[in-house]
Amino acid sequence: MAISNSRVRGSLAALGMAAVLTLSACGGAETEAAADEPTEAATLTVEDAWVVTADDGMTAAFAVFNNPSDTDIVIASAECALSPMELHEMDMSSGDMVMQEKEDGFTIPAGESHILEPGGDHLMLMELSEPILAGDEVEITLHLVDGEQLVFTAVAKDFAGADEEYNHDDHGDHGDHGEDEHDDHGDHGDHGDHGEE
Ligand SMILES: [Cu+2]
């Protein structure tokens, strides 16, 4: 073992030498870095955007944001024609999963992606002015902190889990049941009750 280790080290050292030589050989030719790119929106891309169907009240939109640039991108807010919107995150610190507004916005680090998905960060439509039906296309505008905008389209899909994710208060039977946010018009076939835990 010791022998083969030292052989490996020996050849790595040789490779290191070669690399240093190569580097200094082309050290004179510095590539010109592309100058400032002020438009963040040009580099932020959105994929797999969808929104949960709903008759009224609240619903949520999800997507994958990709930031191939070398600077962080921060989404400050979002808007659409159907509803006021907020950026939400899920918080478990109280022991229950509850959603809350993410006041600092969504940061997509340089070269990374930020995934919005059920149970995690999402775009909340707070109060629909008209129903969103399966297959509808909802246009959403993102406002970045630097003032740029990005418009994308979310396709509406049914998602049975949504009600449970967003109304977790009624799990523990604390006596004081927390259904107040639940718009109880009951025409959803009443399947909203199969707890996830
Ligand atoms: Cu929310």
Number of distinct helices? 2
Q: Into which percentage range does the β-strand content fall?
A: 25-35%
Mean pLDDT, rounded to whole units?
Answer: 75
| Radius of gyration based on Cα positions | 25 Å
Shape: globular
Helix content: 10-25%
Task: Report the end-to-end length measured between terminal Cα atoms.
Answer: 51 Å
Order of helices and strands: HEEEEEEEEEEH
Note poorly predicted spans. 1-34, 167-197
CATH superfamily of the domain at 43-170: PCu(A)C copper chaperone
Are any ligands bound, and if so which?
A: copper (II) ion
CATH class descriptor of the domain at 43-170: Mainly Beta
CATH topology-level name of the domain at 43-170: Immunoglobulin-like
Class from helix and strand fractions:
alpha+beta
Number of extended strands: 10
Major sheet characteristics? 10 strands, mixed
The CATH architecture term of the domain at 43-170 is Sandwich
Can you describe what's shown?
The protein has helices at 2-25, 162-166; strands spanning 45-52, 59-66, 73-80, 85-91, 98-101, 106-108, 113-115, 122-125, 137-144, 149-157. By secondary structure, the protein is of the alpha+beta class. Strands 1, 2, 3, 4, 5, 6, 7, 8, 9 and 10 form a 10-stranded mixed beta sheet that branches. The chain binds copper (II) ion. Copper (II) ion is lined by residues 60, 88, 99, 122, 124. Residues 60, 88, 99, 122, 124 line the site of copper (II) ion.
